[in-house]
Amino acid sequence: MKQLISIIAIILMAITSAQAKGDIKTDTFSVDGNCDMCKKRIENAAYIIGVKRADWNKADHKIVVVYNSAKTNVEAIQQSIAKAGHNTPLYEAKEADYEKLPKCCHYKTEECHH
User: Fold this and answer.
1) Is residue 88 included in any domain, yes or no?
2) Domain region containing 30
3) Mean pLDDT for each consecutive 10-residue tract of the chain (114 residues)?
4) What's the domain count of the chain?
């Protein structure tokens, strides 16, 4: 009987583990920004619960996020980035959040000198 319970427990753990791996998704979307300071801020804002990796490319203004869809979604990630002051396809940063950015990070002016 103990062996049967152990086998069932192992099977259930294996099924749960396989389902969790199936929830990992990768998405790419644009994020407005200028410089390395923006990169750090954008990536930090993207790291909400469930996000495994976030990498923003300064050259093409695209971020690649890898996340567990059982814990978060692309909308929540974009909302967090917008709250940090950077526009995304789904959410525009509030003017107050944008104004908190350092002057070199004001991407609407496109005047970053580093």
Assistant:
1) yes
2) 24-105
3) 66 61 89 95 98 97 97 98 98 96 88 62
4) 1
